[in-house]
Design a protein that fits this description.
DctQ; transmembrane; cell membrane; mainly alpha; transmembrane helix; about 0% strand
């Protein structure tokens, strides 16, 4: 059980994004082959590829948050010492968390509107709430990843404080 949780923590987004990329490649390959060799492309291929793309796009937000790869002003942050960087990142993560916690209820509302409408996709007749659940799942995962990053930065801030306290006690 513990190994599964650790694996999910480390590779959840990557796993689903790789599977999505493989499926999109195979499906689009089938579509191209069908269109140019057989003269007729399956109607479902473009739709499924679009939905996989939507899901992988939203999952990539969580992946980028986990890996700390986002648009940021690195030159500004780099002028601070290690503890200052960690404090700056704590503040930044706090604001990010507030934004995503604010967005979660809207994503839930968006998905629930699709559930209530009973809308299905035109070609595959997939319930649209499967697709519209992507923002909700993504925002929840991002909030979890931000909390993880927040605690990692807090640990860096506390390390410095603990080292300083030990040095003060020794004098």
């Amino acid at each position: 059980m513990k190994k599964t949780v650790i694996w999910l923590d480390n590779y959840l987004e990557e796993f689903f994004m790789v599977i999505s990329l493989i499926l999109m490649t195979v499906i689009m390959g089938i579509q191209v082959f069908s269109r140019y060799v057989l003269g007729s492309a399956p109607s479902w291929s473009e739709e499924i590829t679009r939905y996989l793309f939507v899901w992988s796009g939203f999952l990539s937000v969580s992946y980028c948050t986990k890996k700390c790869i986002s648009i940021k002003i690195e030159q500004f942050v780099s002028i601070f010492p290690r503890r200052g960087k960690a404090l700056f990142k704590l503040v930044n993560h706090t604001f990010e968390l507030m934004v995503f916690l604010y967005l979660i209820p809207f994503a839930l509302k968006y998905m629930m509107s699709a559930v209530e409408s009973g809308q299905v996709s035109p070609a595959c007749h997939i319930p649209m709430y499967y697709v519209q659940a992507a923002p909700l799942v993504s925002f929840i995962l991002v909030a979890i990843r931000i909390i993880q990053r927040w605690f990692a930065e807090l640990k860096v801030v506390r390390e410095k404080d603990e080292k300083g306290e030990k040095a003060c006690r020794q004098q």
